[in-house]
Amino acid sequence: MRKFTLLGGLLTFCGAAFSQYTTPDTGVTWGLQDLVTEAPATVTFENGEYVIANDLTVSLTDQLLIEEDAVVKIAADVEINVLGGFRVDAPDNILFTAVDNTQNFKGFRFEEGSVVYFKNATITYGGGLRVLTETFEMYDSEVSYQGSGSATSAITFSRGNPIVKDSRFIDNYQSAFGSGANQMVSATLIGNYLEGNGTANTNRPQINMGPGGTDSTKVIGNTVIGNRANTKVGGISVSSLLGLDNYCVIEDNIIRDNRYGISVAGANSFGRISGNIIENNDSENSPNVGGSGISIQTGGDSSYIYITANEIRNNLWGVTVIGGARVNLGSTDENYPNPGGNIFSNNGNGGETYALYNNTAFPIEAMNNCWIEGAEELTEADVEGVITHETDNSSLGLVNYAEFGCGSSLSTDKGLTAFEFEMYPNPSTGTFTLQTEKEASFEIVNHLGQVVQKGNLSAGANKVSTTLQSGVYYVVVNSGKAVANQKIVIR
């Protein structure tokens, strides 16, 4: 598969003279069979399988291109190091695995500036993927049973905007995804399935991301299932412990059976936690050190987290807000709109229910939420019974939980219900119709809670045109007395 003709055998000495092989750095695109030919001491093909016996390096101007279904077995402690290009695009699946599953290979190391692409790849019994480059994409793949080696997580990111989509991560020794506390990585993690990662049972969540930077870490539509025997392992964390900018979107995930569900920590944290199902995250069963469905421990004037439309059930705590954190669980303030819509059920410990624990001195807007799922009618006393705030301790901030209710009473003033607010088509290419039975105003809110468009509605059908980028937004309709909302996808 080499694109250029090499000069005789001048370069083949690399494989013969040394135990490791480095491609010649001549702008050549290599295939696996080329490596067998040029580096027989490092790469062999026998009985339908490739075997990599020694360290392999893809040089800065070279590329390794694999567009075939294959089995590649890698010897113990061997590392694949890439400075140039590495592209795997198998028709069905290519398996990278250890020669002996009891002796993991060292893993992959992708140096800064390399360009990496995986599709339809399975990587098992290695030492993880150390991603030092800005350009990394993975689709429809699996990374499982990674031990200690090249990376501190199954995939460890260091910079840039890596993408991992529709892939599986099972029973890895540490986190499935990780990045450093001093490295801003705006990763996009979409539609992945994670289960049982963290078999070392250390204090690391399955998704363990550092600061997201201003481009945001996006954790969207993933399933994160814990192994309850791994009592120290949390679900999702996006944290900035050194004061770096930390923008995050944690949306539409299913998070179950971990030590805790979602954690955002550190100053300069801003973002949205919305549409998640967060259940039974109590594996350690110790309320002093974990068990929150959502835990926010941020600080500083630039920190602000929107918490919207989550279903939070059977954790030791529902939402805990700690230190100097600023959060918004529901507000009609035109500068900080949030439709609320969070649902709480049976979050508690020690015989007490804790839907929301405001362990800060700051007030919290928490309007339009269902504080006790299944209750047809709620009183203020009922809500007070599941919220800890100023009325329980004068040093704590006050929670404004007005317009509470469950079921159809959410997002309603009995005059503009969610059923009277219709929106179509959805998804939309940018033009859609809002229909309401009375005059109202509307706002379109992005994933960071920022209002990107607003206007007024007449009774009846109203055409709305936008020039927004593709993505998920919230359309918030305000009757003047209450707020209703729906999610819209712009394509």
TrEMBL record:
Keywords: Signal. SMART domains: PbH1. It holds the Pfam family Por_Secre_tail. InterPro entries: Para_beta_helix_rpt-2, PbH1, Pectin_lyase_fold/virulence, Secre_tail. Transmembrane segments: none annotated. Residues 1-19 form the signal peptide. Residues 423-490 form the Secretion system C-terminal sorting domain. This is Secretion system C-terminal sorting domain-containing protein. It comes from Wandonia haliotis.
